Amino acid sequence: MRKSSIRRSCAALAAVTSLALAVTACGGTTKNDVKDSGGSAATAGKADPNAATKKGLTVGFLPKQVNNPYFTSADKGGEKALEELGSSYKEVGPSSATDTSSQVSYVNTLTQQQVDAMAVSAQDPGALCTALKQAMTNKIKVVTYDSDTKTDCRNAFVSQASAEDLGRTEVQLLAEQIDYKGEIAILSAAQTATNQNTWIDFMKDELKDPKYKDIKLVKVAFGNDDAQQSFQQTQGLLQEHPNLKGIISPTTVGIKAAAQYLSGSKYKGKVKLTGLGTPNDMRKYVKNGTVDAFELWDPAKLGELAARTAVALSSGQITGKEGETFKAGDMGTFTIGKDGVINLGKPTVFDAKNIDQFGF
Ligand code: RAM
C-alpha cells in the first residue's frame, strides 16, 4: 500500500473507530510521522499556488477562551471569511484561559469529527502538541492564531503582529508616560500563554537599553484572563509596591480590569497603564483620564487571516514553508516567514485623538 493510501485509510479508520485506536493502528504520532504528512510541521509535499480554492471544507476554531470578547471578534472574522469562501465554520473551546486539558479534549474532538482544518489559539505551547500531531497525521491542517504552539505541532502560525515589535513598543509607550523613571509591573494573562510570554521576553530585553536605567520592573503578575483575578492582582500590585509608576497589561482582559481598578482609586491618572486592549473596552478609561495610550490589532482581521490560511493549506496552495505566498482575498497577498509564521501587520496605537474611529 502506498503511503498516501495508508494515510487515507488511517483517516477513514479514525472516522469509524475511536481515534486512539486508529492512531495506534497507524503507528503512532512520532515527529517523523508528522513530517511525512506535509506542511510546515511537515515541509514535505509541494505547494501549488495555482490550485483551486476548495469549497465545502469545515474549519474548527478553538480559541484560548470562548467567552472572551476578543476571541468573539476574532472568530467572527473567521466565520465571515469561511462563509465567503463557501466553507463551514464551527467553534469549540473552554471558558477559562487556564483549562489546558479541555483544550486538548477539544482538539481530539475536532480530529474525531474529521474537520478539514483547525485554527487554534494555544493556552500552553507544549500541552497540545501530541493532540495536534494526531490531527495532522489524520490529514487535518493545523493553523495556530494569536498564541502559538511549538513549530512542529502545527502547519503555520498566524501572528497578530511581530512579537518583538509588540513587546518593545509597549515598554516604549509606558516609558514615555512615566518620563523614563520609576517602578513598573506587568499584569499578564495565564502563566503558560505563549503569546504573552514571548512579548514579556521582548519587554525585558527592551528594558536593558540604558535609556531605561531608571525604570525597574518589580513584578510580573498573572490574572489568567479572568476579570476578577486581574482586578485583584492590580490591587495587590499597588499594595505591595506603593511607589509603582506604571503597569503594562498585554491582555485585553487584564488591561480592562486594571483600568477599572485604577479609575476607581486614588491612583487614577497617577499610575500609568498601557498594554493591549480593545478600543470598545478602553474608550471610557481614555476619556476619563485613566489611560493615555495602548495598542492592538483588529481581532476580526486576525480571525479572517487564520481562516484564509486554513483554506489555503487545505487547498494545497501553501504547505507552511518559508517563502510560499498566497492570496487572502481582499486582505492581499501574504508570504510565509521563518518557522511558518504569517504576520497580520502592524498594530494600531489608540489614544484620545483616534479612539472614536474604531468600533471593535
Ligand atoms: C487576551 C488574550 C489573547 C491576547 C489578547 C491581547 O484577549 O490573552 O490571547 O492576544 O488578550
Q: Helix/strand-derived class?
A: alpha/beta
Mean pLDDT comes to: 90
Can you tell me the residue ranges where pLDDT is under 50 for at least 5 consecutive residues?
A: 1-43
Order of helices and strands: HHHEHEHEHEEHEHEHEHEHEHEEEE
Characteristic key phrases:
binds alpha-L-rhamnopyranose; 6-stranded parallel beta sheet; Rossmann fold; 18% strand; single chain
Task: Describe this protein's structure.
- By secondary structure, the protein is an alpha/beta fold.
- The chain folds into 2 domains: 3-160 and 299-344, 3-Layer(aba) Sandwich (Rossmann fold), CATH 3.40.50; 163-296, Rossmann fold (3-Layer(aba) Sandwich).
- The chain has 12 helices and 14 strands.
- The protein has helices spanning 3-16, 19-25, 31-36, 69-84, 100-112, 129-137, 163-177, 194-206, 227-240, 252-263, 279-287, 299-314; strands spanning 58-62, 88-91, 117-120, 141-145, 156-159, 182-188, 215-222, 244-249, 272-275, 293-296, 325-327, 333-335, 341-343, 348-351.
- The strands form 4 sheets. It has a 6-stranded parallel sheet with strand order 2-1-3-4-5-13, with helices on both faces.
- Helix 1 runs antiparallel to helix 2 (19-25).
- The longest helix is centred in the N-terminal third of the chain and has 16 residues, at 69-84.
- The radius of gyration is 21 Å and the shape is elongated.
- It starts with a helix and ends in a 9-residue tail after the last strand.
- Alpha-L-rhamnopyranose binds next to helix 10.
